[in-house]
Amino acid sequence: MPVPLIALLAAAAVAVTLVGHGEGHATADGDGVAAPPRRALAAGTRPVPATPAGKLRFGLGPGLDSAHNSPLAPDLDFLSTWHNGPNDLSFLRKWKADLIPEVYRSGHGIHLIVWLDGTGEVGTVQTAHGPACGREYPLSSGFLDDARELASIFSGPALYVTLFTEFQTYPCHPNAWATTPDTTNYYLTLQDQYLAALDIFHSGASNARVSLGWGGWQSRWDDPVAGGGRSLITHFADVLRASDFESFQAMGTDSNAADVRDMTKALGQYGPVMLAHYKSKSQTT
Predict the structure, then answer these.
(1) What is the rounded distance in angstroms from the CA atom of residue 5 to the CA atom of residue 20?
(2) Do 41 and 241 contact (CB within 8 A), yes or no?
(3) pLDDT digits (tens, 9 = 90+) for 202-211
């Protein structure tokens, strides 16, 4: 395999990690606050621990509590858990005092998967890039406030973060860059938010490594004119290079083995790759 792949196996969430480079910057929010100009992302890189080529690391989800109690836990490198919106902070605050320190003491890393396509309203918001149509909460200043708390809650020896997993579904018109102007504006603002959140995790959790979470179906087709399919990836190239590693999911009822190979290859040019959450109902797969 030309690039290292990190994988975590889970009944409902799989995650693994290799780490690369990256530093990012800040942003606009969905409340219409103008963002400062994005700095040149190639200006600097952030050193991260190296993983030997060919090293596979496995983890388990879908919850930190269930994974930690699994009989498989002693043989795993990572334990994965999810954050699906502000309501989850109530139990995560309790975990900060006991479960999270216990997991770190057991020698495991923690992998936090942030999925927000079910959180908040869908509509058109004003951004620094113009009107953007899609899921409002990920573009808001409230999300960045929550990211600061998440960084504090999960800070520890080895934290990996998959932000905005399946983010291609967040706009009103998914999976393509230029379907409509408000779709392009949504993705531009989401990139700003991602870079702001990346800085927040780097500042609030010194050992955090951050990635953007792709839906693994993106490699199944290509539409260069609309920036869809594989062509969407190139529109995120600067963000991917600023990330510490790259990540994607592979879930569904159909065979997704080809998705794993294809997305690893497509994202591997930007940095080490994690299969962040995996599930297949196909016995053949």
Answers:
(1) 12
(2) yes
(3) 999 999 999 9
Residue whose tokens read 């990346």: 198
Please compute, for residue 175, the number of CA atoms within 13 A of its CA located in the half-sphere on the CB side: 11
**pLDDT for the residue 17:** 36
Cα separation, 33 vs 128, in Å, equals 7
Per the DSSP assignment, residues forming a β-bridge with 113 are: 82, 162
**Average pLDDT score, the chain:** 85
With the CA atoms of 224, 230, 233 and 237 taken in that order, what torsion angle do they form, in degrees rounded to the nearest 10? -70
Pair of tokens at residue 115: 């999925």
SS3 content of the chain, % helix, strand, coil (to 5): 35, 20, 45
Greatest mean pLDDT range, 152-166, 251-265, 269-283: 152-166
Would you say 58 and 7 are in contact if contact means Cβ atoms under 8 Å apart? yes
- The whole model's pTM is what? 0.84
Report the alpha-carbon distance of residue 122 to residue 235 in Å, rounded.
Answer: 23
**β-pairing, 122-127 with 130-135?**
antiparallel
Question: Which residues fall within 8 angstroms of residue 8, CB to CB, at 6 or more apart?
Answer: 14, 15, 16, 17, 57, 58, 59, 60, 61, 76, 78, 80, 111, 274, 275, 276, 277, 278
The pLDDT, as a whole number, for residue 281 is: 82
Region of 5 (left: φ > 0; alpha: ψ -120 to 50; beta: rest) is beta
Q: 120 — phi, psi (to 5°)?
A: 80, -170
Residue 115 pLDDT greater than 60, yes or no: yes
Give the three-class secondary structure for 7: strand
Closest CA to 165 of 203, 208, 115: 115
The CA angle 15-109-148, to the nearest 5 degrees, is 90
Which residues share a beta bridge with 124? 133
